[in-house]
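Exercise (ungraded).
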Amino acid sequence: MTGYIIYQIILVVAIFTVSLVVALYATYGERKIAAILQDRVGPNRAGPFGILQPFADGIKMFTKEEIIPETANGWLFIIGPCIAMLTACMTGVIIPWGGTFELGGTVYSLQVTDINIGILYLFAVVSFGVYGIMIGGWASNNKFSLLGALRASSQMISYEIAMGMSIIALVMMTGTLSLGEIVKQQDDGYCNFVYQPLGFLIFLICAFAETNRAPFDMAECETELVGGYHTEYSSMKLGFYLFAEYINMFISSAVIVSFYFGGYNFPFQHELGLSGNLLTVIQTIVFFGKIFFFIFFFMWIRWTIPRFRYDQLMKLGWKVLLPLSMANIVITGLVMWLTGKIN
Amino acid sequence: MQVQNSLSDYLPIFFMFVVAVGFIVVTMLATHWIGPKKKTEKKLESFECGIESQGNARIPFSVKYFLVAILFVLFDVEVIFMYPWAVNFKELGLTGLIEMFSFMAILLTGFFYIIKKGALNWE
């Protein structure tokens, strides 16, 4: 038992480090991809191909002066970005990063903990993200920050409903809220995307809105709101907000892959005749490959599609995605009944 | 086929919490110590496009945001009701399906009312 707890602690620290490193390099990737899409070179000074750029940025953030405006609410101003960062990190625990491996006669799972309310936990933590933005924006005592925070939180809660409903159709099919179980069910047969294309599309759009990424980045729309909710922030507090966005992007990619694209499974994995441990290593690599594709997809969209107007965004969330996700539940229910999947 | 859980399965979440809070606190303190501290009056003013800032941001804001928040609470509660049903969907069978459809019909009536009332119009 003690050995297992030590293993869990090691894995938790590893997941935390990996999310930080991926987020760090996602900033670099974002700038490089933006550069490629706009026919530029992108960062290329710090190290070969600018590979050390994220560290240069990090050091710069660290050594900048910390400014707390006189009119701001001191403690809330500091707590805001901390909550944003905390909620971004907390979800990594329940994601199945790979299958199981055997070491010294003991079987370890690469999913730190497979709680049976996994999806509910995920939504609970994601909902908390609103507080980080709202508290930060309000405590800044700046009009732009307040408007940005209001927009962001209003948008996030609106899309959360459609997101929750798109998952219900998936839960109806899988009959479980555990992420590990959902991924295991996709081992044989097709991945859930084949059965839930509409659900996937709704979930994907909502994931963009939840992470405040373009085309839903009204919260920090430079042309009207300066920097949105983080206008007054500087130093590592600003860093936390920006960093949390990239970690959220990484985690939501991982969640999308686990829900709809088979997680760590890949086609014909059992026909290869690989030993257990080697298979797990390949599975984890495949999983990260899928995640990186979705991170790329997030960036691709950001640099391709222009921003929505706020009324368009609200209209899309409430009047299109919500009825669509309800229709998805009805269709899933009817199809499952007609094909005799239910008792 | 449900995953059986004991309280110890939630332990890693606690570990993650400790690791994340530790990282955040250390980073915050480190930047506080490392960064320069040359505070001037202009620097500590809240930003307003370079002009003198007028008043503060404790101002009334559009009631639409409040309305959206209220509607969110209503609909989110409905969504939470649907989760236990969705998990047991296969066992509940046709009866459960019809029951949930009638529940969703009531929900949709409310939704239709909201739209007709113009609560979601952002003009």
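Further reading is listed at the end of the chapter. For now, observe: The two ends of chain A are 40 Å apart (CA to CA). Strands of chain A lie at 100-103, 106-109.
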